[in-house]
């Protein structure tokens, strides 16, 4: 299916954790949408999609020239191979455009069994240099979803030396571990994030003993990132697809994020402070940083959830008269 991209020729890729978010993304101006089925995706604790509603969603997306990618971005056990192959067969029957894969063995199997299948390398493969991108292209990947830690200089190096598509995250949550490869929940609770079962232990409060006493807070909780100020540099460096993180977030977040970035992309990557404020209203953890492109500290230890936008400060609290409704 031929894509119809925005004025700057770069793809805006939106998340969808359920059917409502899917249609919000579609109506807000996404060029492509990524989602997961009930199994084998790294967001196993959300609603996701059945194959009954997936086929209709893809059909409607294609009517508007919007592509749909299925996340198969968990590690696969040997006894699950036949089941995951059946998922792929059903997804291809639903006209899914591409598959986002973490497991190299699964990628090899899919390329052998399904002629012409389009594979995208998940960010959880941790690719952040030319050598890694070359290795994945050689085994059949059309697109590399780079690690968030990849610097602009390495993006340019990849594009200057390799004919491959590059996808890069521009908005959403950061993982405290490298490229989402966290094993904390796996070690402590047998719930690996690489199997779609992350319990977000990094968002809990901790106490750290220091030489001067103790430090308490959300010591492993990372800030959210917002790449609006870096969009032009990303695209000029060769990024083909700008990806919004957030399949586990509400449809209101998806709608605002897609709307804001659609506006910036179509306006030669210009934006204003109100655009950032609009994003912060729907989800703001740690007051945003520009990914790993600055020297900002990525940890925000005061709170681990949505903090909104500051509208004022409480300077005093005074007790007033008590009013009784219906009485004297």
Account of the 3D structure:
The protein has 328 residues and is an alpha/beta fold. It has a domain at 11-177 and 224-282: Alpha-Beta Barrel (TIM Barrel). The protein has ten helices and eleven strands. Strands 1-2-3-4-5-6-7-11 form an eight-stranded parallel beta barrel, surrounded by six helices. Helix 1 (19-28) packs parallel to helix 9, helix 5 (130-138) packs across helix 6 and helix 9 runs antiparallel to helix 10 (273-282). It starts with 10 loop residues before the first strand and ends in a 46-residue tail after the last helix.
Briefly say what this structure is.
The chain is an alpha/beta fold and 328 residues long. The chain is 32% helix and 16% strand.
Level of helix content? Answer: 25-40%
Structural class: alpha/beta
CATH architecture of the domain at 11-177 and 224-282: Alpha-Beta Barrel
Q: What is the tally of beta strands?
A: 11
Q: Roughly what fraction of the amino acids lie in strands?
A: 15-25%
CATH class designation of the domain at 11-177 and 224-282: Alpha Beta
Strand order of the largest sheet: 1-2-3-4-5-6-7-11
């Amino acid at each position: 299916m031929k894509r119809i991209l925005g004025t700057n020729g770069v793809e805006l890729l939106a998340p969808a954790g359920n059917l409502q978010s899917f249609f919000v993304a579609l109506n807000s101006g996404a060029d492509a949408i990524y989602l997961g089925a009930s199994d084998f995706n790294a967001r196993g604790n959300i609603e996701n999609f059945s194959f009954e509603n997936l086929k209709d969603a893809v059909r409607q997306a294609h009517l508007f020239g919007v592509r749909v990618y299925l996340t198969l971005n968990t590690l696969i056990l040997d006894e699950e191979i036949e089941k995951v192959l059946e998922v792929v067969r059903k997804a291809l029957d639903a006209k899914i455009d591409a598959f986002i894969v973490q497991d190299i063995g699964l990628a090899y199997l899919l390329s052998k069994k399904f002629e012409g299948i389009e594979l995208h390398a998940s960010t959880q493969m941790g690719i952040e240099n030319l050598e890694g991108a070359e290795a994945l292209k050689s085994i059949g990947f059309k697109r590399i979803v780079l690690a968030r830690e990849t610097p602009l200089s390495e993006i340019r190096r990849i594009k200057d030396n390799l004919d491959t598509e590059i996808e890069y995250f521009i908005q959403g949550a950061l993982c405290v571990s490298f490229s989402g490869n966290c094993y904390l929940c796996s070690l402590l609770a047998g719930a690996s994030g690489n199997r779609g079962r992350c319990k977000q232990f990094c968002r809990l409060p901790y106490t750290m003993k220091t030489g001067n006493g103790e430090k308490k807070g959300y010591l492993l909780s990372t800030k959210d990132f917002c790449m609006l100020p870096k969009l032009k540099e990303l695209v000029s460096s060769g990024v083909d697809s700008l990806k919004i993180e957030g399949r586990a977030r509400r449809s209101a977040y998806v709608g605002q994020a897609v709307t804001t970035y659609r506006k910036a992309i179509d306006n030669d990557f210009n934006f204003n402070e109100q655009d950032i404020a609009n994003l912060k209203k729907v989800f703001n953890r740690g007051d945003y940083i520009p990914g790993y492109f600055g020297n900002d500290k990525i940890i925000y230890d005061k709170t681990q959830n949505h903090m909104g936008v500051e509208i004022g400060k409480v300077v005093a609290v005074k007790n007033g008269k008590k009013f009784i409704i219906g009485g004297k």
